[in-house]
Amino acid sequence: MDSLSAAAPPAPDIVPVESADGARFELILVAPPDGRPRRALLWLPAMGVPARHYLSLAQALAARGVAVAIHEWRGIGSSDRRAGRRSDWGYRELLQQDLAASAAVLSDRMPGMRWAVGGHSLGGQLACLYAAMHPQQVDGLVLVASGAPYWRAFPHSWSLRMAFHLAPLLAHLRGHLPGRRLGFAGNEARGVIADWARSGRNGRYAARGIAQDLEAALGGLRAPVLAIRLHDDWLVPLASLDWLLGKLPASPVQRVELAADVLDGQRADHFAWMKAPAAVADVIAHWSRGGNTAFASRAR
């Protein structure tokens, strides 16, 4: 057993956060045991996944010198909102209000600290959008099991294209997408599903209420990117990751693919890596210490 696994995991700090429109949630902060982080990461969960499910990843990163703030999506986990007929929101609220509030807490708690934003699945996509909207604020991007949902990037693409038409319709009829019942994501707001499905249908990012050209902003972003793909991740085929990274032509990208042999017996798929996050934490910590140039010679 190495010293990292033998040491007690760093304890989380739970910070109440309030968005500009009054929505409340908790930000989970995990700092290195010595209290002297070398870098910081604002982490965004996958659609429908509560923030607490990434605590093991955050603790593994903190043990490696990277402070982590785990964001909570509106409508999930500690959020005081739940999607319904009388309660709706979309990417605008997630990006311009909730993420802005978490970023402000991270900056206040760690003034002067260089920090990256990253995420899992949809979290990675929204990390890209947030970084593109705030290029002077974000020092880098970390994508884990993340790619664009564009239907042409997937096998059986016609059935997926149909799903991107049906999901917003179902959400409209029910007042929200009943993801828990469907076995996909959480109970999601109509606006989130509309914005997500739009990018799935046409391959471009835009959101109701956001006037900024998100595609142009992505194209101009120059932040270094670490993209970790899981070898057996059928939910994010290589073409899906390629489509997302193709929107970042000015950003230097470091790609890493992880297989099951480094995941303590877990499958290298979309969610199983979360049960054994040490290898993912190793890659992120290494990248955060040396950037793309230092890591490029070791990751192929």
In words, what does this structure look like?
The protein is of the alpha/beta class. It has one domain (3-148, 211-296): Rossmann fold (3-Layer(aba) Sandwich). Helices cover 38% and strands 17% of the residues. The protein is built from ten helices and ten strands. The protein has helices at 3-6, 55-63, 91-109, 122-133, 157-174, 179-182, 190-202, 214-220, 238-245, 278-296; strands spanning 13-18, 24-30, 39-44, 66-70, 115-120, 141-144, 177-178, 187-188, 225-230, 253-258. The strands form two sheets. The chain has an eight-stranded mixed beta sheet, with helices on both faces. Strands 7-8 form a two-stranded antiparallel sheet. Helix 4 (122-133) packs across helix 8 (214-220) and helix 5 packs antiparallel against helix 7 (190-202). The longest helix is centred in the middle third of the chain and has 19 residues, at 91-109. It starts with a helix and ends with a helix.
